[in-house]
Amino acid sequence: MSKAKGGPPASGSGKQGDTLRSPMARGLRRGLLLVVVIIAAAAAVLAVRWLTSAEMMQDPAATIHAEFTLTDQDGRTVTAQDLAGRPMLLYFGYTYCPDVCPTELANISQAMDILGSDAEAVQPVFITVDPERDTTEVMKAYLGHFDDGFVGLTGTPEQIAAAAKAAKVYYAKVEQPDSDVGYLMDHSGFVYLLGPDGRYLSHFRPNTDPQEIADRVREVI
């Protein structure tokens, strides 16, 4: 008696095929795909930040400098050359920043207080990375909480991008759909000390003690 010829079940037949087509399985695959996409996006952001930091650390004096044409809190056009002649404490941030930015601006302000009369020899500068919301009026009101000597600068997105590129500063919009603010800005957190020619001298990591900032500034004024 001949045996009946058999073969693998047709594609999609049987319990295994039914399982692969089930709503739960499809949902699981979509969920896994979403996780992969989120991880890839986060990795890309971290890579950009790492590369920016690594590039800066290779030879910061040769790569970091002040180069911009922006608008100050009083509506005047200001270039990097206009601020040349004094060392500069430069920070990139934004007024809607919930924590890091006000802390760093307060640290700069305290350092200026520690410098006393020597503070006149250094120029603190705050450049926004959120020109969409940080108008001149907003910048002026915000900087009223910090040192009187601050120059606050805003401009078009293209102008801000050019200024950030010269200083090797990273920033990116992070949507917050469940928040009233709409979005936050992820950005580098260094405070730069630039020379009278606008070139890099040193930098301070977030939460650097104001006394340390003041001591370093005194070395160059």
Automatic annotation (TrEMBL):
Record keywords: Copper, Membrane, Transmembrane, Transmembrane helix
Alphabetized CDD domains for the sequence: SCO
Record family assignment: Belongs to the SCO1/2 family.
Disordered: annotated segments: 1-21
Membrane spanning stretches: 31-51
Ranges of residues in domain Thioredoxin: 59-221
Pfam families: SCO1-SenC
Protein name: SCO family protein
